[in-house]
Fold this protein.
Amino acid sequence: GENVEQHPSTLSVQEGDSAVIKCTYSDSASNYFPWYKQELGKGPQLIIDIRSNVGEKKDQRIAVTLNKTAKHFSLHITETQPEDSAVYFCAPPPGANNLFFGTGTRLTVIP
Amino acid sequence: DGGITQSPKYLFRKEGQNVTLSCEQNLNHDAMYWYRQDPGQGLRLIYYSQIVNDFQKGDIAEGYSVSREKKESFPLTVTSAQKNPTAFYLCASKRVGNQPQHFGDGTRLSIL
């Protein structure tokens, strides 16, 4: 199956600073790259996704960048707020119906 | 509103007992999934189903069983063979192909 590595595993930032989380993958056939946010006691929710025909996508304070040559994609959160504190997962599906999640990054935004 | 519903939210299992976790979706999604999440850990795939009456084992299927008799429903049974069942169980569904997964809010299973 797909080999997914996510870094860092934990990240603490001051409120207002930026946070960046990176995922690397192994399957060159991957062409869809979602990011999920999981709040305590809840299921993960999609926050942003990108397809391989673009290199960057933004949605307000959240952006995702994709480098297909290097096989990695990153989540960028700017002007972080306390409500951004959660666990974030990347998941590049290998084009079929399996889904392999990264190990998650616990983001803490310090007020 | 369309969504995916897991029940119960909390479940307790006695020694030697099988328990069944419910997962229902009204999103008309073909594919459904069960994951296990241990404290501070990522998601591990237990079983998945791409179509009614068909399902495949994931990475950690031992001690679990599923059925997919209806498109909307994908119940997970944690059998007595699963020696360490305490975990947070998440169900998800998605359309076929490169689409995002929609998750329920999970069931937390504990041992009495």
Summary: DSSP finds no helices and eleven strands in chain B. Chain B touches chain A at residues 6, 31, 33, 35, 40-43, 45, 48, 50, 90, 92, 94, 96-106 (CB under 8 Å). The two ends of chain B are 36 Å apart (CA to CA).
